[in-house]
């Protein structure tokens, strides 16, 4: 079971053998100790083979059966919120999600917040692509700014208004994943966008499809 080993490594539990089952009531045998049985919310630790074999809470037959799951047993340790986040980030993320997070972190580090704010105000927080305006309170809206040619390596797009558009989160994801074409003619346009950057976006999209 791969997942047990991964969680053991990610959280540095230090077990010699780690097994995972979502519901926590059924496992293969622990063969090396200290050993750990893990479910979706925490784990049960066995320091020695004897402690495992003599535990009243588990029935060891061909499989290890735990009535009520490990979470109902004494000594069960719940994952902290921080640990759960770590597991989710490392295991549940697809490569694409990791790439998107990296792209957005880079953008956050490099961007000029003042320019982005100015752009949002120019469009009154309306998405230049779909026209959506997301209200989050009285006279208060939410919008994001996308760099058409992304900042940072390997794209090295510039942090200038000509390379930015004001978008809603949905359209932002579609742009970051190169899932949609950009056309200067079909978007809401009150500021100058450089064709060069639009072409760059569209070329990335073509490159991805072939
Ligand atoms: Zn939109």
Automatic annotation (TrEMBL):
<dbReference type="GO" id="GO:0004519">
    <property type="term" value="F:endonuclease activity"/>
</dbReference>
<protein>
    <recommendedName>
        <fullName>HNH nuclease domain-containing protein</fullName>
    </recommendedName>
</protein>
<dbReference type="InterPro" id="IPR003615">
    <property type="entry name" value="HNH_nuc"/>
</dbReference>
<dbReference type="GO" id="GO:0008270">
    <property type="term" value="F:zinc ion binding"/>
</dbReference>
<dbReference type="GO" id="GO:0003676">
    <property type="term" value="F:nucleic acid binding"/>
</dbReference>
<feature type="domain" description="HNH nuclease">
    <location>
        <begin position="114"/>
        <end position="173"/>
    </location>
</feature>
<dbReference type="Pfam" id="PF01844">
    <property type="entry name" value="HNH"/>
</dbReference>
<dbReference type="InterPro" id="IPR002711">
    <property type="entry name" value="HNH"/>
</dbReference>
């Amino acid at each position: 079971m791969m997942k047990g080993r991964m969680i053991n490594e990610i959280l540095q539990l230090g077990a010699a053998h780690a097994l995972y089952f979502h519901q926590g009531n059924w496992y293969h045998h622990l063969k090396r100790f200290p050993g750990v049985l893990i479910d979706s919310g925490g784990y049960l630790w066995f320091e020695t083979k004897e402690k495992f074999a003599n535990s009243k809470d588990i029935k060891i037959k061909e499989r290890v059966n735990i009535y009520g799951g490990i979470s109902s047993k004494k000594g069960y340790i719940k994952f902290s919120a921080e640990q759960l986040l770590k597991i989710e980030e490392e295991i549940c993320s697809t490569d694409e999600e990791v790439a998107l997070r990296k792209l957005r972190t880079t953008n956050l580090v490099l961007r000029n917040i003042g320019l982005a704010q100015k752009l949002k105000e120019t469009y009154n927080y309306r998405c230049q692509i779909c026209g959506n305006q997301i209200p989050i309170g009285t006279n208060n809206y939410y919008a994001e700014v996308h760099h058409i040619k992304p900042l940072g390596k390997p794209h090295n797009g510039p942090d200038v208004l000509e390379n930015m558009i004001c978008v809603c989160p949905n359209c932002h994801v579609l742009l970051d994943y190169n899932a949609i074409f950009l056309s200067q003619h079909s978007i809401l346009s009150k500021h100058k966008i450089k064709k060069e950057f639009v072409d760059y976006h569209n070329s990335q999209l073509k490159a991805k499809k072939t």
